[in-house]
Design brief:
10% strand; alpha+beta; 5 strands
């Protein structure tokens, strides 16, 4: 019996080898079709976000966001699902077993009552192997898909860190602008009182009082707008942390720690290659390449072996488990014609691989463009801050001199005083806006280079 089964298996293998040697696909399959052009990426270790965002309050907010954010938690579940699919693909090499137990009870009534118990435990084994490498290709596809989801999770975390930092520094800017505007309101109130007193002694007219009051009310209205913007930004930050609206503790504008990103150092190609979106596109390309191999393997035959046996008491004894596999059947299936579905699936897989190649190249181009934009933003903001410092100092001196001249001489009109005060206020507000622009440029540079 064993020799008979061995001869069947040898015959099936011989038939399979003859089938593989025959041409299966009419068109020529070149190496360019089946091998993707994926660059070799060396190991690159960027800074951790704690080394870049060193402000203590900001670090607390980022840690809470990474733990509680809904998008991050959803992506973590996607990674777990991909890991399960990868584990299942690793078991594709093993045969499958099926156990179908059954039992019957027979009772006969006559002169005497007889009861018989019959049971059977059939066990079947099935093992199918595609001779075109389908199992290996599917295993590789699930592995790269799992890595793809991991990089998508990294990208989601990166975007979240940048969004939290952006909202945090925006809050600091708005707090400083509120402080500047409130001080300006107090200064304009004093100017209004001085002009009103000068009107009473005939040194100013009603028009001067009206003009000063108009400037005061405009600044008060801007304070209300700034408070509204701060409330909205605070709510956005709480939403990123997936928590109910509450007060956010921030550092002051004068003592907040700067973002540790050097906008003057050159950017290496390895840094771009380690971006999460670039690596995600790379793994998507590798997945599509493996799917092309899976589609190609459908042209090859598949070998299927089945065996079966059972435990039973019908023969008066329990069969020895060592003699369980009593039947062995081998089958070889060679696809010939399936209404063009196999060839169409292969053609579609090649087109999808080409789409993934295009997407990968586009992501690389976008990565370089984002780095260039972030560097330009930082450079421009630094230049503006240097110029704005001189503007703030000059406008402050102009405001102080105009107030003194208005009080002790008639060489300066009230319009010049109001204009000087407005110029100083606007220069200070623009300075804080330039500071925020620099922080946002560094945040964009972090997104463009780190993972």
């Amino acid at each position: 019996m064993k020799k008979y089964f061995i001869s069947i298996i040898i015959s099936l293998l011989l038939i399979t080898s003859c089938s593989i040697q025959k041409p299966i696909i009419e068109e020529k399959i070149t190496a360019e079709v089946l091998e993707p052009k994926i660059p070799i990426i060396e190991e690159f270790h960027p800074k951790e976000w704690q080394e870049i965002f060193t402000d203590e309050h900001l670090q607390t907010l980022i840690s809470a966001a990474l733990t509680n954010n809904a998008d991050v938690r959803t992506m973590q579940l996607n990674v777990e699902q991909a890991a399960i699919q990868m584990r299942v693909a690793k078991l594709s090499y093993l045969p499958s077993f099926a156990l179908s137990p059954s039992a019957t009870v027979t009772k006969a009534n006559g002169v005497s009552v007889s009861v018989s118990f019959n049971y059977e435990l059939p066990l079947t084994m099935s093992w199918e192997l595609n001779l075109g490498g389908q199992v290996e290709a599917q295993k590789a596809a699930t592995k790269y898909q799992w890595k793809n989801t991991q990089e998508q999770l990294n990208y989601t975390r990166l975007q979240l860190i940048a969004s939290v930092a952006n909202a945090y520094y925006t809050l600091i800017m708005l707090d400083e602008q509120l402080k500047i505007s409130e001080q300006s309101v107090q200064l304009q109130q004093e100017t209004l009182e001085a002009i009103t007193a000068m009107k009473e002694v005939g040194m100013m007219n009603e028009l001067a009082v009206n003009q000063a009051e108009t400037e005061l009310q405009a600044t008060i209205a801007s304070v209300s707008d700034l408070r509204l913007q701060r409330e909205k930004t605070e709510r956005v930050l709480n939403l990123l942390l997936s928590r109910t609206p509450q007060s956010v503790q921030c550092s002051n504008y004068t003592n907040v720690k700067d973002i540790n990103m050097d906008a003057t150092s050159p950017v290496s190609l390895e840094a771009l290659a380690m971006r999460p979106d670039v690596r995600s596109a790379e793994y998507q390309l590798r997945t599509s390449f493996s799917n092309t191999k899976v589609a190609r393997s459908q042209f090859y035959p598949s070998l299927k072996l089945t065996a079966g046996g059972s435990w039973t008491n019908n023969i008066g004894e329990i069969v020895n488990p060592a003699k369980l596999l009593l039947n062995l059947i081998g089958g070889l299936t060679q696809p010939l014609f399936q209404m063009g579905q196999i060839k169409a699936g292969f053609e579609i897989a090649k087109l999808q691989q080409e789409q993934a190649q295009i997407a990968f190249e586009q992501v690389l181009l976008q990565a370089g463009s984002e780095v260039a934009n972030a560097l330009s933003e930082c450079y421009t903001a630094l230049q503006k801050l240097q110029v704005r410092e001189s503007q703030v100092e000059a406008s402050r001196k102009s405001m102080e001199n105009s107030r003194e001249l208005m009080q002790y001489s008639s060489s300066v009109t009230y319009l010049e005083v109001l204009t000087a005060q407005s110029s100083w206020l606007n220069a200070q507000l623009q300075q804080t806006a330039d500071w925020l622009e620099l922080q946002q440029g560094k945040i964009n540079l972090y997104k463009a280079l780190c993972r």
